[in-house]
Design a protein that fits this description.
The chain has helices at 18-21, 42-53, 108-111, 127-131, 164-171, 247-271, 276-283, 287-305, and strands spanning 64-67, 72-73, 82-83, 87-91, 106-107, 117-121, 150-153, 156-159, 176-181, 186-193, 196-200, 210-212, 217-226, 229-237. With 308 residues, it is an alpha+beta fold. The strands form 4 sheets. A 6-stranded mixed β-sheet has the order 1-4-6-9-10-11. A hairpin with a 2-residue loop joins strand 13 and strand 14 (229-237). The protein is elongated and about 90 Å long.
């Protein structure tokens, strides 16, 4: 099915449903050849960390979608206009398109929901478009690009697509907009209030720097190693500032907890008089675990001998 671009779409009477008349992700390109690819590995790894640690209290994994460097189409009157957020989250939509297919783009008029969160990772030269009127040195008035300036092309005029900041604020009305500068470590947070972004102060207690009340989740800046790279990363956290864990971290924590329980059980058996060799055979203790058991038993006996 072919669609005209940049023109109103004719309707029948009664009108046909949008899925029959409007272009979908299958009709719109997933990328444009003239656009550059990922500028560096950070723009690949940081979105992975955000996606892999995200867990939402009020939504199952099948009811939210997150994407990175994926075309987001936002204006049905200009079907080819799109932005490619470094990372975004949409909630209340199926993880799979129509419940069965992996998305190649995100088409707002088909999804029925704009993203709930957008994260932009600043690169040299992207600050004006990413920060809009909050860019240092920007005039108080709306910039020409954000005001949809008209560009002259020969004898005709064509509208220029707005910058990212304008799209997120005016078209998509994204509730939470986060901008992170990996070079300076500066994190900025904007929340939609009355149809316009207002910059919010960062929290100062512990790891929790940003709290998103509509999603009951926090965001902080974590110094650590991810995929062999140690640096500052954006990472999700709970209300107490505890980092949400990667699968590998969850497995390691579960293993450590299980080993601790085994050592405690072995200690109790030895304390009750069971022979250490029998405990080792029964529980399959390693040499390191045997050392831990005996150290705990010796400490316990010492405390009993010296009640003071």
């Amino acid at each position: 099915m072919a669609f005209a671009t940049g023109y109103s779409i004719p309707q029948s009477d009664p009108p046909r449903p949008p899925r029959e008349t409007l272009p979908t992700m299958y009709d719109l390109p997933s990328e444009f050849p003239e656009e550059p690819g990922l500028p560096d590995e950070f723009h690949d790894l940081q979105p992975q960390l955000l996606s892999r640690t995200l867990a939402l209290r009020d939504y199952t994994r099948e009811n939210w979608f997150c994407g990175s460097d994926l075309n987001v189409y936002y204006d049905v009157q200009h079907p080819l206009w799109h932005k490619r957020p470094d990372w975004f989250l949409a909630v209340g939509v199926p993880r799979l398109y129509d419940g069965e297919d992996l998305r190649r783009s995100y088409v707002v008029w088909q999804e029925g929901r704009s993203p709930e969160v957008v994260v932009e990772l600043l690169s040299p030269g992207t600050e004006p478009g990413d920060l809009g009127r909050f860019f240092a040195g920007a005039e108080a008035a709306e910039p020409a690009s954000a005001a949809m300036a008209l560009a002259t092309n020969g004898s005709s005029q064509a509208e220029l697509p707005p910058d990212k900041f304008t799209v997120y604020e005016r078209y998509l009305r994204v509730p939470y907009y986060v901008v992170f500068n990996r070079y300076s470590g500066v994190l900025r947070f904007f929340q939609l209030v009355g149809g316009r972004y207002q910059e919010q102060p960062l929290l100062s207690a512990g790891n929790l720097k940003i709290w998103l009340p509509g999603l009951a989740i926090g965001l902080g800046v974590w110094q650590g190693e991810f995929e062999g790279v140690t640096r500052l990363w954006l990472r999700w956290c709970d209300p107490d500032g505890h980092w949400l864990l990667l699968d590998a971290e969850q497995e390691r924590l579960a293993k450590e907890q299980a080993q601790t329980q085994v050592v405690m059980a072995a200690q109790a058996m030895v304390t009750r008089g069971m022979a250490l060799d029998d405990v080792v055979a029964l529980l399959g203790l390693s040499d390191e675990q045997v050392k831990q058991v005996m150290a705990e038993v010796d400490d316990d006996r010492g405390e009993r001998a010296d009640p003071s």
